[in-house]
Amino acid sequence: MTESSSARGQSGSSSLNPTRSERAARMALSCVVDGGDPLVGDAVEGLGAQSTWVKLTEGAFGDPLVRRSTSVEIDRLERWALKSCVRFVIPGDEEWPEPIGDLRFAQAVQRRGGVPFGLWLRGPLHLARSMERSVAIVGSRASTSYGNNVATDLGADLAEQGVAVVSGGAFGIDAAAHRGALAVGGLTVCVLACGVDVPYPRGNATLFDWLAQDQLLVSELPPGATPTRVRFLARNRLIAALSQGTVVVEAALRSGARNTASWALECQRQLMAVPGPVHSAMSAAPHLMIRNGQAALVSTAAEVLELISPMGQNTVAMPRGAERPTDVLDAARLAVFEAVSAHRRSSVGNIALKAGVSVPVCLSELAALEGQRMVEGDERGWRLHQSQQRGLF
Amino acid sequence: MTESSSARGQSGSSSLNPTRSERAARMALSCVVDGGDPLVGDAVEGLGAQSTWVKLTEGAFGDPLVRRSTSVEIDRLERWALKSCVRFVIPGDEEWPEPIGDLRFAQAVQRRGGVPFGLWLRGPLHLARSMERSVAIVGSRASTSYGNNVATDLGADLAEQGVAVVSGGAFGIDAAAHRGALAVGGLTVCVLACGVDVPYPRGNATLFDWLAQDQLLVSELPPGATPTRVRFLARNRLIAALSQGTVVVEAALRSGARNTASWALECQRQLMAVPGPVHSAMSAAPHLMIRNGQAALVSTAAEVLELISPMGQNTVAMPRGAERPTDVLDAARLAVFEAVSAHRRSSVGNIALKAGVSVPVCLSELAALEGQRMVEGDERGWRLHQSQQRGLF
To answer: Which of A62, A148, A316, B300 is paired with B124 by a 20 to 30 Å CA distance?
Structure first.
């Protein structure tokens, strides 16, 4: 592959689309270089993918990558992808999610970072359009039933509001979030740390089948790639950058979800966390992030929606308790009402003294309160109406 | 009582102490005017208690207060107090808690506010000294067992650290907090919305007996006074102002604890809230206050202590998970480690290719990893050491 090939490889692409060999170069890079490699990533940004590929094959990034590059067969990979309904999108494609470009400016976390060379996609959803309203829900594999319930509820409620639920397909919170969105027929996107054809973890194979059939599987790794710890860390940046915001439902202090959270902050995305019982180790990371001011506390999908929406849209009404009859009383009437005993009947004189009002005022307020069925009076005195027998706080 | 009496009523008080008739005037005001009355409070601030009392008896604050004032018998009250081991402290007394003066500058909440005329005390604790390190723990009467457990734990853990636990003696969170402090032999102070001799709620009568015997009951209301809703609201400001900070453990959106929280903010005290399950109505108010940025999220007594301590004291170490063996590996060794399969044995060539390092580097890293018992190799190839069979995240 040479730079001159960019002029030739135009077949089958519109004038707006990247050239075929730009695509081939990025595909080849995705096969040889692990996602988030800062050295090769910088070269692609500076020189373009084709020149970077040439330099790589010439040894600019070390012998191991040269050796790897010799095993790449782009034509065979493209045929396989076509047959397997897998597509490879790159910057400039209509389906390319522009916001992921923010990774260019994000400080590398654990020396991984940068914009992916391209994204392998499997499933019918349109990636860029799905991500226009999207929230990542992430958390621990070793989640509690509380966390799973919250993740499923959030996934379902957000999906019902037309928000795509992004997660990583892992056991626990990830799977619960995907399932919540699926349960209401909403959109959900799974970003993998392996090839889009690799069911990892195997226990979620059925889930991946559903997602491939009706939703979308996303990866920067080529088909067949297996997950490694480094790839999980690199994958987390894609979850954070693709979504408008990230919600951490449950996570231990040491967990991949915290890594995703760091990426959300690096990409200037809204970071949110769900609280839980203080004794639960699985709520330790959400509580820490809220306490530190890194994450906003969220309890409901409505609160999430408010935070990812433009200012003034989807605002949550300030919640307050139910109205009480006493709310609408003015000061004098409230004082009289408060001076009336629940059970023991009192004279007007005693009530006036206790309320700190004159007897005539007291009488007229009592009459008004009687009309509102808040007090009742007879010749023995006044007491609260039976409907008003209430506790003090 | 006249202004000239201030000169006469010196018997039994040191020169630093307020005069006897200043004390008598404040005592009389506490019997006639409900705590937090802004009009009479302002008059006391401006004119002093004795002049205010004279004006009150002359009708400056309305006929009802004049009528009430005629029933006040200070000498009888003082004799009763002496007999009942109840004392009345006023500004200038050694036991007067100076920080409560911050109520002078606090914006009145629900038109109640101001510094109390004096405080009725029952119990052996020294009020001012106890409040030097003090935290209010408040919350719902209708608390859950989760909330009660947290309140008891916080009360006990703070008391063990020498912090006095302030609360309101109500069912639920209040009682749980007092009991936590009592359980470890710590200090706890109960601020009532009735006289210090009135056991309200009656179900906590035994608790009040303990508190009167070993701890401290506090009220701005005279002996015998019964609670009203207005008095609860006025009482809440004392809880907030006496303490260095207020922790809301569980509270519905509509609750007295939120009123106490408002007072804590008005008095520039640290407001804290304990998170809980998002489905629990009793955690709705804490979550709202955290979400709004009014309250800091706290999970433990150590976190509370950090927030009420001077900067740099009692700081909580940034919590993090347990160290893993891989934490200390450099990039090349980690890459090699990650490229080794858990069960299937691989050749050095394959591992080098996967890790992106040269074969000599791979061999030396494998040898080092073998020394750390992280991988094991034989003539069939390399795999993870049995102690390292781990899941990916």
So the answer is: B300
